[in-house]
Amino acid sequence: MINTLTLNPAIDHIFYLGRLERNVTNRLRATAVSVGGKGTHVSANLKLMGTDSRAFGFTFGRNGEKILEMLGEAGVSTHFVHGEGQESRDNYLLVEEASRDCTLIAQTGPMPDDEQLSALMDVMTREIKPGDDLLLSGDVSNFRGRDIYAWILERLSHKNLRVYLDASGETLKAGITRKPFLIKPNLDELAALAGRVPTSLQEVAKAIGELDGLGIEIIAVSLGGGGSLVRAGDKLYHAAAPRVAVYNTVGCGDCYMAGLMHAFSRGFAMEDTIRYATAVAAAKAENPLSVGFEPQRARELMDSVSIALI
Hints:
By secondary structure, this protein is an alpha/beta fold. The chain has helices at 38-48, 61-73, 114-127, 148-155, 169-175, 187-194, 201-209, 252-265, 270-285, 295-301; strands at 2-6, 10-17, 30-36, 53-60, 77-83, 89-96, 101-106, 133-137, 162-166, 182-183, 218-222, 228-232, 235-240, 306-309.
């Protein structure tokens, strides 16, 4: 069973306008609302792929109730610790339709107290079964310690979970000490691990190679419109993303991760796994919301994904 953890979910408020101009009044063409938070996105996308998951995390106040409602409408099984007296955060996403630029403005979010954290660990320990998949992903700016994912994994180590980690900065550095099955850094996150900014595909490959010995089976580096570079065992795959009419790039990485988890849970071959994840991420880019994609469109795009060993 796949489990996702979102420590700081949100409500995404999406504003569509022709072009953002500074210091003048900007008129919106349309607005939309969707659930926010990387783990919640993965769970919702997995449901569209036909794969169930359990979603864990914290929610607060009326915003939190709305988050749970939206996840329920998406068919996701929720196991959140809910608190009152604070509000789960709001994120604001500006989508410029002329340039297709997407700008995210995010609140920090409320900080759970020790009792709430203990309650969440009790729920996760009870519900997550030995050998399950667990995704740890997204913002943890509402925690004092950036090692929160490593702390959680230590307490669940007896479960022998297959762990997927999508984090950044010190949270990623601490998390990889727990030897996750898969990490999915973007270029900035890989640069933080490598201590330099890779400027070519060859330099990305070299930076990935320097992570050998950490016990991470799969390293999938997302390259935006350039696709991804995936190290699996002794093989390195470059997946070129298909050309699509980009609408909203926010959430593409979460859809890619959902595609990987779906494919691994179904026993796909490695190349098929990467091809599927790349196709669903490209289909997400055509979606105006921050989560969701058209499954039929993803199937159509699979034949346009090219994968090469390098």
